Amino acid sequence: MTDTVPVADLVDQNCHGVLRTELGLGTFEARLGAARAPAAPGTTFFDTQTGFAVRRWCPPLLGLEAHCPPASYLARRRELGVAETSRRLLRATGVSAHLVDTGLPGDLTGPAELASAAGSDAREIVRLEVLAEQVAD
């Protein structure tokens, strides 16, 4: 399609850094769902639309078959390591610039690390509510 239709640069206008640590099956699955409640009885968060998308698109980028079992996918992520897994997944997105919200807790990459892994530009965004709290104090 790019031979006939020009593709615009993609900008992720509000993202967070990437975890620097490996995740076990339960923790990874919990991060697939934004809900605070458990998955519906008889299902997992891999059975959600997000879970289906992860299982379809991510394993081939790591050298696995699409829709492979979640345990196989996570084993391959561990085998490659966090840095290489992040590099492969981020570069496959085609995003040329990331605007990074650094306000989340946890061991997350900052803009420079994210840019290096993604092969993109990355800038930190300023959260207005945090800035307003600082000014008010």
Can you characterise this structure?
The protein has 2 domains: 1-21 and 93-137, no CATH class; 23-80, no CATH class. Helix content is 44%, strand content 12%. The chain is built from 6 helices and 3 strands; from the N terminus they run βααααβαβα. It has a 3-stranded parallel sheet with strand order 1-2-3, covered by helices on one side. β2 (95-100), α5 (111-118) and β3 (121-124) form a beta-alpha-beta unit. The N and C termini lie far apart (53 Å). The mean pLDDT is 91.
The description of the largest β-sheet is:
3 strands, parallel
Mean pLDDT: 91
Q: Tell me the radius of gyration.
A: 17 Å
Q: Give the proportion of residues in helices.
A: 40-55%
Report the structural category.
Answer: alpha/beta
Extract low-pLDDT stretches.
none
Features:
6 helices; 2 domains; 3-stranded parallel sheet; alpha/beta; single chain; 137 residues
Chart the SSEs and their pairings.
Layout: E1 10-15, H1 25-32, H2 49-61, H3 70-80, H4 82-92, E2 95-100, H5 111-118, E3 121-124, H6 128-136
Parallel strand pairs: 1-2, 2-3
Organism: Streptomyces parvus
Protein name: Amidohydrolase
GO molecular function, one term: hydrolase activity
